[in-house]
Amino acid sequence: MDIFLTNSRSRTKERFTPLDPANVRVYVCGPTVYDRAHLGNARPAIVFDVLARLLRHVYGADHVTYVRNFTDVDDKINARAAETGRDIAEITEETIGWYLDDMAAVGVAEPDHMPRATRYIAQMVAMIADLIAKGHAYEAEGHVLFAVESYADYGALSGRSLEDMIAGARVEVAPYKRNPMDFVLWKPSAAGLPGWDSPWGRGRPGWHIECSAMAEDLLWKAPLDAGRLSQSALNAPHSFDIHGGGNDLMFPHHENEIAQSCCAHPEGSFAKVWLHNEMLQVEGRKMSKSLGNFFTVRDLLDQGIPGEVIRFVMLSTHYRKPMDWTEGKRGEAQGHLSRWKMLRHRGLTQEISKDEVRSLVDQQVINCLCDDLNTSGALSRLFEMANDAGAAKPDSLEIRRFFATLVFLGFGTLDLGRIPRGKAVDNAITEVLLLPWEKALVRARATAMETKDFSEVDRLKAALVAAGVEVRMSKAGVELVPGAGFDASALEGLDAAEWTSWE
Fold it and tell me: What is the pTM for the complete model shown?
């Protein structure tokens, strides 16, 4: 099964060919842990969660290694500690717990590895020392800086020349820099701030070196030491398959990762494929505290918006397009999910097993995801499957395939909690309730047209009208519309199958 992904480095959609199909390796940049995850932080977590699910489906659950890091040493964390008077370790530990809880609420499974930068300082120091020895970095006034001019391909990922970057970038002006674009690998730490001993004095790492060191250790050194790399992987040393993150990280973070990693290990290519998701907007505008449209994932959850609704809205837009969170999309998502929840209560007597998720997931959904993670196409297919499942017998293959596919996509619980009721939600709930009745009436009507006996049609119509349903019949077909006085409980003691048999 072929997977096609848009590689940011080549700017084309390419057939994905792993370095080692028995051990597909993925690294995604995670959060800096000083505060609650905002809604924009949830998008890459959800996007790459879907990617990981797809890779595990195609190559096997035991043949994918997914790494997403935590940056737990950073100036923002230091600033938060100074503001609050709290211990830095306490802040980072609490924030990591918040992040994991919030991501779980939106259906994001935990990666195989979630390294913390502070636990890989030795690896960072070793990589920095190696870069100095190879002439790609230099020490100046207690700092160690990467010399961007030493790497000829600097700017290839973002498509910028060094001259353009110097002209347009906001860079730290420092007299000890040989080039304005040179970036920090190590910097001094003042008393009271996190710091570690190094050949260049007590200090802490720069942001970019953290990901390079952690990716090298977990996606090359660890599987190499464990004997988990095939010959094809050994032929591409110090390399892994996919590096992901938001497109705001492309420059300078990912550009700098490539430069320092490829200079430290010139025999490798670092990441083979680069994937970047677009940013998030709210009602067509950039999310900003000054605009009053900034909110965290927890803010939405506390407002009673279920995590699966957040996930649905995120997946309704392709990852390479800007995602616009709107109240309308939220309502539509809740409507669809509410309908599916009602369908689960009616159609499933036994929960979906892990084996069923693997064996029954819909192939058309998989095909959509294989086409550059076309999640909006996958959702469109789910709408079709829901219609078929709504008219099927409980625990039928149609129903179990539909819910196996939902679980695969991260909608395993359909725990919609407190749902702010609205027209979209109410219509969706009644839609699933009335679908089998609509099918029963269609069949009863077809039989009556042949026999000229409309007594069953009249009996069924009377039951529906008594429940507050408007029955519309024409040459085009049958439509059931819940009226203002619709009472779903009036149908609970009845069975649509009394009038017609199921397919």
Answer: 0.83
